[in-house]
Design goal:
15 helices; 12% strand; binds glutamine
């Protein structure tokens, strides 16, 4: 049951092989069994989940079910969900019960999906290891001494350990793709603007994008069908015709031109990662694709550019957490300013504070031109590199992350080492392009390796096709961590 695809589950629900209440209860029992070791979920509410499951069963009985009706989906704790504790991994929001639904949540609700629970994450989505969460680190189900990646680490661990049918994540610099790679699952960050950010707690608004995480490309397509679409409440949501992202899954790959950026295949990538990625490319050639060498010369600047722009936006977005209207308020203070200062000093963790300070600095008078404006200019050049590259290829491939999952605590004291985890993913966010990660083998220590697939703007259906064809020919995506099934 826990290995079935979303389409198989939907068919079982329709055929009354199982009810949504039974399925939801099976997952809740499984979570009770495995979550204590993994810490993937931060909030569970079985009454709410089962009430949704009963409504889904009624809908199934009436015959007006959608592809996701009755299917238990986990939600990253960055999405506001009405009546649910929504913490964003922070003490600052330890008591925040959302009065409204994020667009993504209401899309799943209208489809009749079940909210199975809220998944752990790095505080305010800042991190690559899920060690900055106020609720403790998440463990990688393949080896609980290792990190699951971040910031959507709870989601990635939950999917890998079969503690949900599929789940949501968000990706500002790699937070869907990198944890997907480290946990051996599939994840897709759509083109910026395809999924509404309404009700998704903002980190760096010009980069944040929500997307699906699941066990295979076909599941991601069904999830994205529900998540995508115009929403007037997000001014950067794009007004486009509704698409079926599963429409091209079965197309053969003959003639596909895969671009390999020479900068991604240089020093820095672990040799075990390189081996798995090379083997995946060989498989693609067997499937009829050709490879071309391309260059993204400015991508080497993506980390410094991102660590100017993302903190700048974060420093502004996080100014709303002041202890006044909601969230954490310091218990003792002398006056209003003292209340702000103490609430923020006590409510935010150290990585969040570091970013607020950097962001405030680069936006300040005298430094704005030297840092923020420069970074914006280089961001444009990075995006332009992709426009050039796509003149020579249809899709770009490379590693998702330079290494497999590292040990808990290994990079905690060295922010720069941690930031380098996203060296291959960040340029995609800066350009606003869609990117995904799919499992393509195992590296040293038997930890999963992710293959990154980068599409041109709005090319999600093709990326899913490219991923699906590979998954028909290989079985990396169906491997499960030992002792879990
Ligand atoms: N790891 C990156 C960071 O720490 C990206 C996080 C994300 O994509 N939310 O900012």
């Amino acid at each position: 049951m826990f290995n079935k695809s979303l389409r198989q589950l939907a068919a079982d629900l329709r055929a009354k092989q199982i009810s949504s209440v039974e399925l939801t209860q099976l997952y809740l029992d499984r979570i009770a069994q495995h979550n204590p070791a993994l810490n993937a979920y931060v909030t569970l509410d079985s009454d709410k989940s089962l009430a949704q499951a009963r409504a889904a069963d009624a809908r199934l009985a009436k015959g007006d079910a959608t592809e996701l009706t009755g299917i238990p989906i986990a939600q990253k704790d960055i999405f506001c969900a009405q009546g649910w504790l929504t913490t964003c991994g922070s003490k600052m929001l330890h008591n925040f019960i959302s009065p409204y639904d994020a667009h993504v949540i209401s899309q799943f609700n209208s489809a009749g999906a079940i909210n199975l629970g809220k998944t752990n994450m790095d505080e305010f989505a800042m991190g690559s290891s899920n060690e900055t969460s106020h609720y403790g680190s998440v463990k990688n189900p393949w080896d609980t001494a290792r990190v699951p990646g971040g910031s959507s680490g709870g989601t990635a661990a939950a999917v890998a350990a079969r503690l949900c049918a599929a789940a949501t994540g968000t990706d500002t610099g790699g937070s869907i793709r990198q944890p997907a790679a480290l946990c051996g699952i599939s994840g897709l960050k759509p083109t910026y603007g395809v999924v509404s950010r309404y009700g998704m707690i903002a980190f760096a608004s010009s980069l944040d994008q929500a997307g699906p995480m699941g066990r295979n490309a076909e599941d991601l397509a069904l999830m994205l069908n529900t998540m995508a679409g115009f929403d007037e409440r997000d001014s950067t949501s794009l007004q486009r015709d509704k698409e079926d992202y599963a429409r091209d899954l079965d197309k053969p790959l003959h003639g596909l031109r895969i671009g390999l950026p020479k900068e991604f295949f240089a020093a820095g990538m672990g040799s075990d990662v390189a081996k798995a990625v090379e083997a995946a490319l060989a498989e693609y050639k067997k499937l009829g694709a050709t490879v071309v060498d391309i260059s993204l010369p400015n991508s080497r600047l993506s980390i410094p550019v991102y660590y100017v722009l993302a903190p700048a936006e974060a420093s502004s977005n996080l100014s709303r957490f002041d202890g006044v209207r909601y969230g954490y308020r310091a218990p003792d203070y002398s006056d209003l300013n003292d209340m702000y200062e103490k609430s923020r000093a006590q409510g935010f963790g150290s990585e969040v504070k570091r970013r607020i300070m950097i962001g405030t600095y680069v936006l300040s008078h005298g430094y704005y031109d030297a840092y923020y404006l420069q970074a914006q200019k280089i961001r444009r050049l990075i995006a332009q590199d992709f426009v050039e590259a796509y003149k020579h290829c249809d899709i770009i491939m490379g590693p998702t992350s330079p290494s497999t999952a590292f040990k808990l605590g290994e990079k905690g004291d060295d922010p720069v080492q941690m930031y380098l985890s996203d060296i291959y993913t960040i340029a995609v966010n800066l350009a606003g392009l869609p990117g995904m990660s799919i499992p393509c083998g195992f590296g040293d220590n038997n930890m999963p390796v992710g293959l990154q697939i980068i599409g041109n703007y709005f090319d999600e259906a093709r990326m899913l096709n490219v991923a699906h064809q590979y998954q028909l020919a290989t079985d990396w995506h169906s491997r499960a961590p030992q002792g879990i099934l």
